[in-house]
Structure formats: structure tokens, C-alpha cells
Amino acid sequence: MSASPSYGSRPWTFYVLATLFTLFVIFLYGPMIAVLILSFQGPSASLVFPLRDPSFMWFDELFNPRRTGDVVGAFNRSLPLAILVMFLTVLISVTAGFAFRRRFKGATAIFYTAIASLIVPGLVLSIGTLVTFRYLGMSANWYTSALGAHLSWALPFGLLIMFAVLGRLNPSYEEAAFDLGATKWQIVKEVVVPIVFPGMIAVALFGFTLSYDEFPRSWLTVGTKNTLPLEIWTMTTNVTSPALYALGAVTTFVSFIVIAVALASIILIQRKRFRGK
Amino acid sequence: MLKKTGLITYLQVTPLTVVLVLFFVIPVALVVVVSFFRYKMLVGLVPDFTFQNYADLLSNPTTWSLYVSTIKFTLIVLLVTFVLGFWISYFLVFHVRNLLTAIGLFLLCTVPFWTSTIIRMISWRPVLGREGLINSGLQGAGIVDQPFDWLLFSDFSVVVAYVHLFTLFMIVPIFNSMARIDKSLLEAAVDAGATRWGVVWNVVLPLSKTGIALGALFVVTLVMGDFFVVTVMSGGLSGSATSGIFNDLQFLNYPRAAASAVILLIVVLVIAASIFRLVDVRKELVR
Known about the structure:
The complex is a heterodimer of chains A (about 280) and B (about 290).
Chain A lengths: L11 H27 L18 H7 L7 H29 L7 H13 L2 H14 L6 H25 L4 H9 L4 H29 L3 H4 L8 H11 L4 H34 L1
Chain B lengths: L6 H28 L3 E3 L3 E3 L5 H7 L2 H35 L3 H12 L6 H6 L2 H4 L4 H8 L14 H25 L3 H9 L4 H12 L1 H16 L3 H6 L9 H8 L3 H25 L2 H6 L1
Antiparallel strand pairs in B: 1-2
Helix pairs in contact in B: 1-14, 2-14, 3-8, 3-11, 8-11, 9-10, 11-14, 13-14
């Protein structure tokens, strides 16, 4: 049962740290909940508590783009972009992850390039991508330059997750399966995929959300039409109504759906695996 | 079957390499090249090899004061996120006895990471503002008469937002390192007479150093490269090392923006390299 060091009954530090943890969770979620509640603000249009005459009017305002800008259009660009980044991130980082299980020439160089791509400030990359496209004589667009800029940040994340996942895939499992007479395809299907699949969903989740919420890397690379984070950024400067909070509530809701789908599928797969045994 | 390396391995790593070259190596290289170009009003970029942009920037006291301010923020945020990240991970790994509960609580910490950064920033407004939750709470309780002005649009709110956004980047790698520590090591230390504090200092801390290094790397680069958090949360009062880039870009002065970017890049890379010198991150990761 006990996964912790056996000190006997719970030490006093447990209670101190449990309090710290609780406070941290309140700190994390408190403001988000405040925004969620205030998005139902009534016609008083007050940006702070208390909530007067709760209504859906600001959500309505959001989808009526008279004053709040092109929220729907931005969403219609952000979503396909995020899905595209998600699929490419899974595909590319999973294959690359397998390559890194073996030693090959240039492995270290590629690894450090990936890490450098992860830590280079997003704004620097944004300028670089814009200048590159300019020299190529191409105009910046969300499905070209922004896609690339997002990938340059989502792929290293995906690769790091694949390292963690593949670290648990001991080559002797595959060798054992091979010795027991499994075909190549059977090894992949029965040994590799079950171990790697939950990690692939984690990579997908990262790919999607890193793109869907990315701001600095999108800033100069999306061209003339904004993605959602950029639209929100514009709104922070010129919209002073709870419509901003309503937008926050809607985007957070979309994020939560994505997270829930990802986590639920990981749990389902794990349960299926254990039942199968 | 497993020993056959060669062509397949290279094919597997090709897509990653292509993307990294096209969208990381070439853009960054071009930023470096452009930083030596000249800027001419109305014309824009003029190919050249001049150090004028760098000279302009380095002789400008604003650049230095912005860097001082950014480094100040970086150090404060690094300290706060490290303390929070270390003790929260410690709590989850060594104090929560049920593994499923630990994973559940860990996920609870990571969920906000997957939601919009800008929304999480804005959400501090109704909390910290003059008429926000904290001020009205304090006034309602009769603790203060006047609302605190320094809660929002100040250095304080910038640090709050950074900690709110980036502590996750500390928790995840430190949690990952700590979870790999063999629990019997801790028991051995206790049996050998170590105090609880001694175990933390001599066993847990050294064994989590990879996680700490990775977390520090994330936090440093995120804070150093940030423009948006500091602008929104300080209400435009504070700048960051990237503010200069932002201003130059508005006047289409790409060469000087590129020079600023290169300086920032060098600073970040020097910090990253010193972190990598302390800990061989790759060896620990692939382990």
C-alpha cells in the first residue's frame, strides 16, 4: 500500500505541504473561476464583482461581431491549425523518437538543435520566420509560416515526451516477442503500440494546445488574419466589456473538452490493457 | 531485427530534421544576418555589414535598464517557482500514499497549462484590481480603508502572473525526476540516522537536479523572452528585454529588431549552456 517512506503516522510536514498544495490549487484556479462567473455579468457591464442580473448577453455579443471583432473567423483558423499541428507533431515526433533509440551519426546535433528550438524566445523565431518568408517571396499565412513556427516549438516537446515514453519500452520486450515467434507486425501491434499509445495521446494533447494557445510565435507569422490568441490580445486593448470574459470562458471550455477527451482516452486504453491480461 | 541500424533510422529522423532546419535554423540564421544590415527610412532593409545596430543598442541606457528589469523578474520568478515546484512535487511523490491520488493531483496542477495563457493573465484583473476581489475583501473585513493600488498594473502583478503561468514548467520536470527516486534510498538514509531534513537535502535534492535544471531552463527562457505578460500585467509601465524589438518592428526597423533579438538570444543561450554544464540533461533523459 505504502508508496511513501515508512515514517509511521503522517508527519507534521504532510499537513504543512498539504496546505501549501491546496493554496496553490486555489491560486491556479481561483482567477479562472472568477472570470467564468463574471462572464455571466448582466447589462451593468461591470468588470468586477458583484455579479448583477446574470445573463448570457456577453456570449451573444461575442458571436455578433459588430463590436468585438472577428472572433468566429479567428476560431475557424485556430482550430484547423491546432488539429494540423497535432497530427504532424504526433507523426513526426513519434517516428523521430524511435530513431533516437539507436545510436546514429548526428543524433547529438539534432537533439541539441531540438532543445535550442524549444528555448529560443518565441518572438525571435517569429521575426526570423517572417524574414525567411519575405526572402522566399512568400506572404505569411496561418497554414504556412504559422504552422511551421508552431511545429518548431511543439515538436521538441513531443520529442521529450517520446523520450520519457520510449525509455520504458525495453528492447528486450521486443526481443522476447521475436524469440517467441512473433512476426514484425505482431511485435509492433502487441508490444510496441500498447506501451507507446498513451504517450502518443499526450504528444497529441501538447501539439494541439501549444498551437491553439500560442501567442508570440503566431504574432508575426499568421499574416493579415488573426488566430484566436491574437484576436484576444487585440480585444484586451480595445474591448472593455465582459465580452472579453465570455471569450475567456468559451476558449477555456474548448481547452477543457480537449483535455478531457485526451485524458479519458488514456484511461480507457489503460483499463482495456489491464482487462486484457 | 533490432540491431539493424542505418537507412531506416535516418529516414525516421528526417521529417524532424527538415522542420527544424526550415523553421528554426534558417530563420534564426537570417535574424543574425539581418542584424548586420542597415535600415533606411521608407526603403527598409539595405544589405550591409555594419555593427551600427549593435552599437546603437549597447550604447543606449534604455537597453541596459530593460535588461536589468528583466533579469530582476527572472531571478524572482525562478526562486518562487523553484520553491513551489520543489515542495509540491515532494508532497505529491513522497507524502501522498496512493499512487492514483498522486497522479490525479498532479493532473490537477497541469490542466491550466493546457488553457489559454492570455485568458489566464486577464483573469487576474477582477481579482487584483482596485475594485477586485482582494481589495473589496480586505475593505469589507475592515482591515484596510483604502484599496491597494499596487496589486494590479505593477511589478507585483507581473510576478504573480509569471508564477501563475510558469510554475507548471517547474513542477512537471521535478515531479518526473523525483518519481524515479528509489524509495528504499530514503529508508536507507533514515535507517542510517539521517533527519527528515537531511534526507531532503542530501538525497532528494541531488537526485532531482535534472528536473530542477530543466525547469529552470524553461522558466528562464520564458521570462527572458516574454513581452506580452509584462506589458499586460504592468499596464504598460514596465518593459522587458523584448520591448525594444516590439518598438522597432512597429517602425519596420528589422535590422535593429534583429540585433536586439540576437543579443537576447546570446544571453538566453549563455544561461542555457551554463545550466547544461551543471547537469548533463540528455544523459539523464535518455537513461
